[in-house]
Amino acid sequence: MNAPLIGYGEVRHARLRPVAHAFAYPTLFVLLPMRSWRHASWALARNRRALFSFRDSDHGEGGADALQWLDDLLASEGIADADGEAWLHCFPRVFGHAFKPVSFWYCHRADGSLRAIVAEVHNTFGERHAYVLDDAAWGRELRAEKRFHVSPFCEVTGHYRFRFLTTPSRERTVVRIDYDDGQGALLQTSVSGRLQPLTASAIRVALLRFPFLGLAIVWRIHWHALRLWLRKVPFIHQPAGPVQRASRGGPA
């Protein structure tokens, strides 16, 4: 049976225009085998108060079973053969707080091959949108049209380019997301890390290293937004949300 993992790594973000703006921060994340979790008990607290925990309602439509939401979403998109493990790559709750700008569901077939990836995006307005990336494969570039307002310094136009990389033994993982608008490349982002078993001792170390993980993510988002505003990058007011809660993408 698969067991959960914790990753320590780095988040990188670079804006190319109209002003250059880049940053990199250390981070941690978890990689959770959600189907196996239905039949196992691990050190990670689930749906209860704890210093380091996971809550299903932080994902999908905010319900009590995030995996059921995923299965319903895949079924609605006509993806019927992603019945193997579903690994969720996300930020945990630390001291009860979490903000998850993007989480990734790696949806496998029964034979262990990757079938689809769902990129679940949250903005600071409390809204959520899922990009269902069909015909996924490790290292393959996947593309999705932008349908969801995230940053007040980017319009809802253009497309994302995704690339997901991992080592065969899951020792390291890298996710790259580049955003192109009508004028070409605008943003280049990535999150990467080295993985290890998510044990009770690993949780204690994580609490010492990143006690304010969720709060730091929110603070950094607003700090860099302020810096862009001060540099007179055009501010775009929030448009109406997408009609659908999910949209489709696939190989470029």
Helices and strands, with pairings:
Blueprint: E1 5-15, E2 21-33, H1 34-37, E3 45-46, E4 52-54, H2 66-76, E5 86-90, E6 93-94, E7 102-108, E8 114-122, E9 128-133, E10 142-145, E11 159-166, E12 172-181, E13 184-197, H3 200-209, H4 213-230, E14 246-251
Parallel strand pairs: 3-4, 9-14
Antiparallel strand pairs: 1-2, 1-13, 2-5, 4-6, 5-7, 7-8, 8-9, 10-11, 10-14, 11-12, 12-13
Q: What is the compact description of this entry?
A:
With 252 residues, this protein is of the alpha+beta class.
Explained architecture:
- The longest helix is centred in the C-terminal third of the chain and has 18 residues, at 213-230.
- The radius of gyration is 18 Å and the shape is globular.
- The chain has helices at residues 34-37, 66-76, 200-209, 213-230, and strands spanning 5-15, 21-33, 45-46, 52-54, 86-90, 93-94, 102-108, 114-122, 128-133, 142-145, 159-166, 172-181, 184-197, 246-251.
- The chain has one domain.
- The protein is built from four helices and 14 strands.
- It starts with a strand and ends with a strand.
- With 252 residues, the protein is of the alpha+beta class.
- It has an eleven-stranded mixed beta barrel. Strands 3-4-6 form a three-stranded mixed beta sheet, with no helix packed on it.
- A hairpin with a 5-residue loop joins strand 8 (114-122) and strand 9.
Which features characterize this protein?
single chain; 252 residues; alpha+beta; three-stranded mixed sheet; 4 helices; 14 strands; globular
